[in-house]
Prior knowledge:
- By secondary structure, this protein is mostly beta strands.
- The protein contains 1 helix and 5 strands.
- The radius of gyration is 13 Å and the shape is globular.
- The N and C termini lie far apart (about 55 Å).
Amino acid sequence: xxxxxxxxxxxxxxSMVGLMxxxxxxxxxGLVGEVIVRVRGGAEHFLAYPADGTGRIxxxxxxxxxxxxxxxxxxxxxxxxx
Length: 82
């Protein structure tokens, strides 16, 4: 008998953290942003929040996932200084 796992087959924190994505909806304080990340052999959209809680990240910016909250939420930071 196997134990029940609510997110069986879902990615764990370690496999999402460090992945790169692109902002498709502005990420910032008071906003629910959106990013697209290449994962599981395709590209998926995730709700996104700024990792520092204060920064604003514009559409089109390349970001890195620093925290993942299953099933569809990520905290991100800009991947490159601009």
